[in-house]
Design a protein that fits this description.
By secondary structure, the protein is of the alpha/beta class. Helices cover 41% and strands 19% of the residues. The chain folds into five domains: 202 residues, no CATH class; 142 residues, no CATH class; 219 residues, Rossmann fold, CATH 3.40.50.300; 140 residues, no CATH class; 236 residues, P-loop containing nucleotide triphosphate hydrolases (Rossmann fold, 3-Layer(aba) Sandwich), CATH 3.40.50. The protein starts with 12 loop residues before the first strand and ends with a strand.
Length: 1135
């Protein structure tokens, strides 16, 4: 910064003072300061030497000398006067005091950094940010850099003006004794400056100034720029700091501190880093155990949506490793990790990255999804109707799993290196937060609710805990954890949080994608976004679950249609205008390209909106005339030709039927007198008459030949005919326009244009919705997907960043996946979930390997969810920094109070997480039973449980449930108080039972949700059936002494307790299976709103020989049966 460009106090600034050198030498430096040698003798001191001079005007000399006698320190700048070597102008600024401080460090807050960038006051390049800030403040005396400041409560050791400290301490300097005496008031940069005793300081620069305060983090003491002044008006008398100043991006400072700390202390993140590395090695090993194999192409056949293939060279053990949903890779050769059996995950990752960065063409092969694996050795893979089995060597495709692992590793690397959106995230995860960095982001308190949000979101008065949860989430300095037991309104709280964030967002800025809503499963993401209507726009979900999932485009199309319907209902007269616009577009398209296809499109739409019967009749004649073309017939025949099967497996599947179908079509148009045509028809007749047995190679070769000949004959040849516009088609447009409405005013014109866009410009609407969407959504893995990165305009290896991350069902998310979106959260990360419900998924085999090879890995660290881990850590940290980060919602509104109280007592109250049920029982009426809890007792004599592979099934329960569901639906009683149909769900713990119940429901299966417990978390239904499945003829032989030996108190940490617990788990799994899982049982018993019907054998819970066992292994099920007997209904299921 040049002194002349520096804004200063006018009374302390003297400009254009006319001077001349007493010894004429050229100036080597123009920056420095002046000192007096007498009334008419001064020196200009620079880093290159001293220049003697005098003022040309005596009054100027006296004025400056008076200033200097006040011991005011100064800086001066020389402005040479043209070609006159001896003459120059002098610019002088006086400072009321000065201090020497060798180095001053200033940390820049995020708020100040944003203003600097917004106003373009700094370099746009991140790497030049700090230096460009420094240049705004740096001044220079004859030997040192310096900067100007004023102080309030922030007090430095004050000094008087005089010689610079560097001169006074230089043993070789040749200054006079008088000069040395004048240096006694300068504080040397080797002497400690008096400690800061206050917190207010302002440093001044050329274009802007900073208000700073003192911060102490650990052993670091620095100044913290918390406000910026870009006006620099009414500048007071300034002080000067002699010494350099540096500026640090606050985020970078935090990153360096956290990175150093995490590198010196391994912990929770490191454990999951080990887990993921092993996850990669296990992935490669699984693929190697399956190995490379070939396909018996002569022994394959078509199945619904795919092809049945018979692997060759695949052992029964290897086949068991392939599961539904896996992908089979068909490639020219076996993948490198199968060829090189010793290749580790790290080596393969390096190989893969090198290949990705190279210009070598990528030939990964073709991947096809596994629909079903049959234990007899067959695999069904998904292919298109006309697609054959891909060529090449087959192997297990690891690409999708590999990408997931790479995303997990990348997220952890970002966190460990303090490069995540919030660089302090690693510290938070490790539980070492002490509030040190809390004010690195200036946060204004946000009120939890506004009247608008309260009215829009809450159907009942929000509880104080819900309000506090919203408050905590909005105002957390880093992370908030909201535990939501069943029915406590966690989704409502999420929507309220998002609505408030949108309400307070600065709409003058780009608000696109400020919030990310994510979860492990697609259903959980949809469950939240279906409740959102931010700015009346749909929330876009990036990434799909599969072919059955609704794509982003389809979801938007549905919204467009719904929104269009609402607009037309309110503005019915505009509809005709929209119709006219679309009709005109189709007419214009036909005139531009007058093809038959465009004519048909125009005429069909015209007929769909025309009310004139005469015009409609004319349109019908025109369509018949245009449609009766050879091209239309040929397209139909081409499809049938391509269905001709030319492989043994394909022909055995439907070859004869397809040949017969084609033969029938060709007989109407082909001339058999032509020899070639006769031969084709003869071949097809032989194929059509096939009635089973062996398929000869000769027939297949003949079919190949006939198929190719027919394709050649029927494929349209290039046509040089020029289509012309038909006058009779255009006449239809003219006749219809006479009766069509035109917009009457500007408002109608706007509505007309909007409807037209909704109707005919889906891609444009999608771009607009994405561009204005405050909320993005995706699964935890897809939050790093290509689609969402494109929407965020992310290029290269950069990662998306969001102001707020909200993760629903967070307790279900594996820590590796949870860290992916967490690394993207800059301002706040909000975890919402319930660790008392379904647990996260991890690989037991990997964990066991970690225990063997890594040693000392705490089993609980891996078993408990990251949600629970962070919840416990945050509670511990509250005692240190007094920042509340956790809360448990305490009122449920889903269930009948009887059932709500039962779930609270059985699964939550022991942990001080109980909740109340404030709604009256009358809100949950249903017309089937007087009570909300029914147990239909199906004794073992009605039918046993049966094994079905690794699963179990009980047919009598499936039969009974199917009958009951059908009765409920057909009875007419299945409606609520408003006449709406009730919703039904059937839950069981076994996949085989799920399939059996769906089969027994038949046509009613589409009206009922049937699934395992895992598929029901986050869902609710009016009526829930729970199929128990487990049933036994007699009680098992057990060790009663060991069963009843339950330790208490301090004994719960003893080996005796571990032995007892292990025995209870063994007995429980053997006799009750998944019912022993408290988490799963909690979900299964809390999905109903009005009625829970348990179908199962009560004997295994309350029978004479079972009661004691059930009390220890499945206490909740035993108490549920007792409650049904006491307060509910128990029915005999065998009558």
């Amino acid at each position: 910064m040049i002194l002349m460009d520096f804004k200063t106090n006018k009374e302390c600034t003297f400009s254009e003072l006319k001077c001349e050198l007493t010894i004429v030498v050229p100036f080597m430096s123009v920056e420095g300061r002046i000192q007096a040698k007498g009334i008419d003798a001064f020196e200009f001191l620079t880093s290159d030497g001293h220049y003697s001079f005098k003022f040309k005007i005596e009054s100027d000399a006296r004025m400056i000398l008076d200033r200097m006698r006040q011991n005011n320190y100064n800086l001066a700048y020389v402005c040479p006067a043209g070609n006159k070597l001896a003459e120059f102008d002098l610019h002088i600024v006086f400072f009321y005091t000065a201090k020497v401080d060798k180095k001053t460090n200033v940390i820049i807050s995020e708020k100040v950094k944003e203003i600097l960038r917004t106003k373009k006051l700094v370099s746009p390049k991140p790497e030049d940010f700090e230096e460009s800030v420094r240049k705004n403040f740096i001044l220079s005396n004859e030997t040192s850099n310096c900067f100007a400041y004023t102080s309030g409560f922030y007090k430095f050791e004050e000094i008087n003006a005089g010689e610079d400290a560097s001169t006074s301490n230089d043993e070789d300097n040749d200054t006079s004794e008088e000069e040395k005496d004048s240096d006694t008031n300068i504080v040397s940069d080797e002497e400690p400056v008096k400690e800061v005793s206050g917190k207010k300081l302002k440093i001044y620069g050329q274009d802007y100034s900073f208000s700073v305060s003192q911060k102490v983090i650990g052993e670091d003491v620095f100044l913290y720029a918390e406000k910026i002044d870009t006006v620099n008006a009414n500048i007071p008398n300034l002080a000067l700091n002699i010494g350099d100043i540096s500026f640090r991006d606050g985020e970078r400072y935090v990153s360096e501190k956290v990175r150093k700390e995490l590198s010196e202390n391994t912990g929770y993140i490191d454990i999951w880093d080990q887990y993921t590395k092993l996850e990669g090695d296990f992935l490669l090993e699984r693929s190697r155990r399956v190995g490379a194999f070939s396909i018996n192409r002569n022994n394959s056949s078509r199945a619904e949506g795919g092809i049945v293939i018979m692997p060759v060279g695949l052992s029964a053990e290897s086949l068991q490793l392939i599961t539904n949903g896996d992908n089979i890779l068909f490639s020219e050769q076996a993948p490198i990790y199968i060829q090189e059996a010793s290749m580790t995950w790290s080596q393969f990752k390096e190989y893969f990255m090198t290949l990705e960065e190279s210009s070598i063409p990528k030939r990964r092969g073709i991947s096809r999804k596994v629909k079903r694996v049959d234990k007899s050795g067959y695999i069904v893979i998904e292919v298109g109707d006309e697609e054959e089995i891909p060529e090449g060597v087959a192997s297990l495709d690891i690409y999708g799993d590999m990408q997931q692992i790479l995303r997990r590793e990348s997220a952890r690397d970002l966190i460990m290196n303090a490069e995540s959106a919030n660089p302090a995230l690693g510290r938070i995860i490790e539980g070492r937060v002490s509030g040190e960095f809390a004010d690195m982001h200036e946060v204004k308190k946000i009120a939890p609710l506004s009247p608008f949000v309260k009215e829009k979101i809450f159907s009942h008065e929000p509880t104080s805990t819900q309000i506090k949860a919203i408050d905590l989430a909005l105002n957390t300095p880093d992370i908030a954890i909201i535990q939501g037991p069943p029915g406590t309104g966690k989704t409502t709280v999420i929507t309220a949080i998002i609505e408030r964030l949108n309400e307070i967002a600065d709409k003058r800025k780009d608000v696109k994608g400020q919030v990310l809503v994510t979860s492990f499963q697609h259903d959980a993401v949809r469950n939240v976004i279906e409740r959102l209507s931010i700015n009346s726009l749909p929330t876009i979900k990036f990434g799909t679950q599969g072919d059955d999932d609704v794509s982003m485009e389809k979801a938007l199309e549905n919204w467009c249609n719904e929104y269009k319907g609402k607009l037309l209902k309110r503005n019915p007269t505009v509809n005709t205008t929209v119709e006219q616009k679309r009709l005109m577009k189709l007419r214009d398209m036909y005139m531009l390209v007058p093809s038959d296809a465009n004519a048909v499109n125009f005429l069909k739409y015209a007929r769909s909106i025309c009310l004139d019967s005469d015009v409609n009749e004319e349109i019908g004649f025109l369509l018949d005339d245009i449609s009766a073309t050879e091209e239309a017939r040929t397209n139909d025949i081409l499809t049938k030709i391509r269905r001709i099967r030319t492989t043994k497996a394909g022909f055995l599947d439907d070859g004869a039927d397809n040949a017969d179908d084609l033969l029938e079509s060709l007989e109407k148009i082909i001339n058999r007198d032509v020899n070639e045509n006769k031969r084709i028809m003869d071949i097809l007749e032989v194929a059509a008459d096939f009635r089973g047995g062996a398929v000869s190679d000769e027939l297949l070769e003949s079919l190949k030949e006939a198929k190719q000949l027919l394709i050649d004959k029927c494929t349209p040849k290039s046509s040089y005919h020029v289509d012309r516009v038909r006058g009779d088609v255009l006449e239809i447009y003219n006749r219809m326009c006479q009766a069509v409405h035109n917009p009457k005013n500007e408002e109608e014109e706007i509505l007309y244009n909007l409807l037209n866009e909704l109707d005919g410009n889906l891609s444009g609407v999608l771009d607009s919705v994405v561009g204005y969407n405050f909320v993005f959504s995706a699964t935890t893995q897809q939050s790093e997907g290509k689609a969402i990165k494109r929407a965020k305009a992310i290029v290269g290896e950069e990662h998306p960043v969001y102001d707020t991350i909200i993760i629903d069902e967070a307790a279900r998310v594996n820590p590796g996946d949870l860290m992916v979106p967490m690394a993207q959260g800059k301002r706040r990360i909000i975890l919402v979930g319930d660790h008392r419900q379904l647990p996260h998924i991890y690989n037991e085999e990997i964990f066991e390997n970690m225990q063997v090879n890594e040693g000392g890995v705490d089993k609980n660290v891996v078993k408990i969810s990251m949600f629970e881990y962070l919840m416990n850590k945050s509670k511990e940290l509250y005692s240190q920094d007094r920042i509340e980060r956790t809360i448990t919602l305490d009122a449920q509104y889903r269930m009948h109070p009887m059932l709500g109280e039962f779930v609270s007592k059985q699964f939550y109250e022991d942990y001080d997480e109980g909740f109340k049920s404030p709604l009256p029982a009358s809100k949950f009426r249903q017309n089937f039973y007087d009570k909300p809890l029914v147990w239909i007792d199906v004794k073992n004599s009605a039918g046993p449980e049966e094994r079905f592979g690794t699963s179990r099934v009980r047919y009598c329960e499936a039969d009974l449930i199917a009958r009951k569901v059908k009765d409920f639906i057909e009875s007419g009683r299945g409606v609520d108080e408003d006449g709406r149909d009730l919703t039904y769900g059937v839950i069981t713990f076994y996949s085989a039972q799920v399939k059996e119940i769906k089969k027994k429901l038949g046509i009613y299966a589409d009206k009922v949700r049937v699934g395992s417990v895992d598929a029901f978390q986050g869902m609710e239904f009016d009526v829930i059936f729970l199929s128990v499945v487990r049933s036994h003829k007699k009680a098992p032989e057990i060790n009663l002494d060991l069963l009843n030996m339950e330790p208490s108190g301090e004994e719960k940490t003893s080996e005796t307790y571990d032995l007892w617990k292990s025995y209870i788990q063994e007995v429980g799994m053997k006799n009750y299976g998944f019912l022993t899982s408290e988490n799963r049982l909690c979900v299964a018993l809390s999905r109903q709103k009005r009625l829970l019907i348990v179908v199962g054998d009560s004997n295994i819970f309350a029978g004479k020989d079972w009661s004691n066992i059930a009390e220890k292994c499945v206490p909740a099920m035993k108490k549920l049966y007792e409650k049904a007997k006491k307060e509910g209904v128990v029915l005999n299921g065998q009558t």
